From TrEMBL:
Signal peptide: none annotated. Residues 365-391 are annotated as: Disordered. It holds the Pfam family TPR_12. Belongs to the TTC19 family. It comes from Albula glossodonta. It is found in: Mitochondrion. This is MalT-like TPR region domain-containing protein. The keyword Transcription does not apply. InterPro entries: TPR-like_helical_dom_sf, TPR_rpt, TTC19. Keywords: Mitochondrion, Repeat, TPR repeat, Transit peptide. GO terms for cellular component: mitochondrial inner membrane. Residues 371-391 have a biased composition (Basic and acidic residues). It comes from the Eukaryota.
Length: 391
């Protein structure tokens, strides 16, 4: 599992935080589910065929409720379906020793899931739901817990993107119940990922006590797990599993930080971003796209706290690294830097960077970023007019 490659263009007005939170929850709910499912279905050493590769899109936090979370050349709905189905299908639910009837059922389940995948990519959500309901019925009839867990997880994500939050919650809980009854410990990474998705659902429903408890459970479980792993021999756990656990902790910290920002808990958000950034640097590298995103988000929180110099230092470094690495969302980083300069009162430099960012966003066809940069330019003009009136 890896931290999501997400670039966020933050609003300049705190009143826009609530739409930000709702759309962030969409992102969080669908991110990295494939990894949890893959680990769940391989736990009992069933043969796994390499999954179909789907290019993982980049994300940007959106501030319009009606927008989906993904941007890029494809429509946002199509990209969302691709992310959800990143490693869908193409694995065997049964061992070779099963009878022919079991193999026939297996083939039917896989075919239904393939049809569901195609329907979701075409944005035919009702058809996808129908195929998934047929698949879950067959999975229950064949008493295949792995197929049940996998299908319930897909159904939960489908329910979420349809806005059926209560149904999504029930489905995630059902998948988690089967996972735990199959012997998975409570600190299993797949269990933690599903718990994190539940926390994001509670957050968007304004069930803040449950959201806070969910985020805390995820982080405390992972922190204890990492501590225990330190005492084990180096070869006791694969390096990849150790890395996955640390990155999952980073994802939890990042998620709570964004939730805390939306709730105006800026000090907690700052601490979580700093810890997430440290993990990402250690595991992914200084110039990794997610590292730059976290630097950018930390800068935004610092700016909101009035620490403009520190914020500018963070975002400047992100911009420099992004330029060297060819970050695909460099215009987003530049737009955020322009906003921080605006708050510092450096209006001319802010205007220059906004124009550079706007040109890049337009060249990239990034309409969301274009809209938000224009809002920044409007705020800049208002600030200039203010100064003129005072003079």
């Amino acid at each position: 599992m890896a931290l999501r490659n997400v670039s966020r263009l933050f609003p300049t007005h705190k009143s826009r935080f609530q739409p930000m939170l709702r759309d962030w929850v969409r992102t969080q709910c669908i991110c990295s589910l494939a990894h949890a499912q893959t680990r769940a279905v391989t736990r009992e050493n069933h043969e796994v065929t390499p999954p179909e590769v789907v290019q993982r899109p980049r994300y940007r936090r959106s501030y319009e409720i009606s927008n989906e979370v993904c941007s890029g050349e494809q429509s946002s709905n199509t990209v969302n379906r691709n992310v959800i189905l990143y490693s869908v299908l193409a694995f065997s639910f049964f061992s070779n020793s099963e009878e022919d009837e079991a193999k026939k059922t297996e083939d039917e389940i896989i075919m239904l899931l393939k049809r569901a995948k195609l329907s979701m990519m075409r944005d035919e959500l009702d058809a996808a739901s129908g195929y998934l309901h047929q698949a879950i019925r067959l999975a229950h009839q064949s008493h295949n817990n792995q197929a049940i867990i996998y299908t319930y997880s897909l159904m939960a994500n489908l329910a979420f993107i349809q806005g059926q939050l209560t149904n999504a919650e029930k489905l995630f809980k059902a998948a988690m119940s089967f996972l735990l009854s199959g012997g998975a410990p409570q600190d299993d990474n797949a269990v933690i990922e599903m718990s994190l998705k539940l926390a994001t659902i509670y957050a968007t429903q304004n069930r803040h006590e449950l959201a806070d408890h969910g985020f805390r459970f995820c982080m405390e479980s992972l922190e204890a797990k990492i501590e225990k792993q330190k005492d084990l021999p180096a070869d006791a756990i694969p390096d990849e599993e150790r890395k996955d656990t640390k990155l999952l902790l980073g994802l939890c910290l990042d998620s709570r930080a964004r939730y805390s920002t939306a709730m105006h808990r800026f000090e907690q958000a700052k601490g979580d971003y700093q810890r997430a950034l440290k993990i990402c640097r250690e595991e992914q590298g200084e110039a990794h796209p997610q590292t730059l995103v976290l630097m950018n988000d930390l800068a935004t929180v610092l700016d909101m706290q009035g620490h403009h110099d520190e914020a500018l230092g963070q975002v400047k470094k992100a911009v420099e690294l992004g330029k060297e690495a060819g970050h695909p969302d460099q215009h987003v980083l530049l737009g955020n830097m322009a906003g921080i300069l605006l708050h510092q009162g450096q209006l001319e430099e802010s205007a220059r960077l906004y124009q550079v960012a706007l040109a890049m966003a337009q060249a990239n066809g990034d309409s969301e970023a274009v809209e938000q940069i224009k809002e920044g330019l409007k705020e800049l003009d208002d600030k200039k007019n203010e100064q003129t009136d005072k003079a």
